[in-house]
Structures are given as C-alpha cells and as structure tokens.
Amino acid sequence: FSSDSDEQVAKKEATLEAFNEALHYYLNKSFEKAVLAFQTVVTANPDDRTAHFFLTKATSNHEQGVPDNWSGVLEMANK
After folding, report:
1. For residue range 32-78, what is the model confidence (pLDDT) as tens digits?
2. In 14-37, which positions are buried (b, 16+ CB within 10 angstroms) versus exposed (e)?
3. φ/ψ (deg, to 5) at 30
4. Residue 7: predicted pLDDT
5. Do the Cβ atoms of 51 and 41 come closer than 8 Å?
6. Is 69 strand, coil or helix?
7. Secondary structure (3-state) at 68
8. Residue 1: which residues within 8 A CB-CB, separation 6 or more?
9. pLDDT tens for residues 42-55?
10. Which CA distances in Å does 18 have to 13, 14, 70, 76?
C-alpha cells in the first residue's frame, strides 16, 4: 500500500478480509468462489488493480481449467 493515497489505503483495508478470502479460494482452485469474492472487492474498490488482475485470472481459470500440477505461482512478464 506504500504508494497508494490515504483514500486508496482505506478502501484496501476495508476490503482486505474479502480479498484474503478470494485469494484463499484462488489458491485452492475454487475459482468460481474466487471470482465472486474478487468481484466483491472490485465493486467496493474499482481502482484495486491487484483485485482486477486476480479476478481476470480466476475467471480464465474457471472457464478454461488449469493443469493438475497448477500451483498458483504466476510469472510476471512485465511491470
């Protein structure tokens, strides 16, 4: 949160529990639940780019599936 405005920090703190729940679902391959939880975060804080990122990934994983050896680790190709 270090580069966020005070307003953005407050919004992220307010949605932190929902974000952590969504991330838990995501990492446990419960992508449908993860999508719903990340949507909650994005609705409350439309400027949360991290929540948007994981919402997109969870939606894709839910629709397309993941390999059996999927670990949730993502390689970032750019900043």
Report:
1. 999 999 999 999 999 999 999 999 999 999 999 988 888 888 777 77
2. ebeebbebbbebbeebbbebbbbb
3. -95, 70
4. 85
5. yes
6. coil
7. coil
8. 8, 9, 12
9. 999 999 999 999 99
10. 10, 9, 23, 24
Structure tokens that stand for 43 in this block: 């609705």
Place of tokens 């397309």: 64
Give start and end residues of each alpha helix (H) in 5-46.
6-14, 16-27, 31-44
Tokens standing for residue 63: 């629709």
Residue with tokens 């894709």: 60
pLDDT(22) > 70? yes
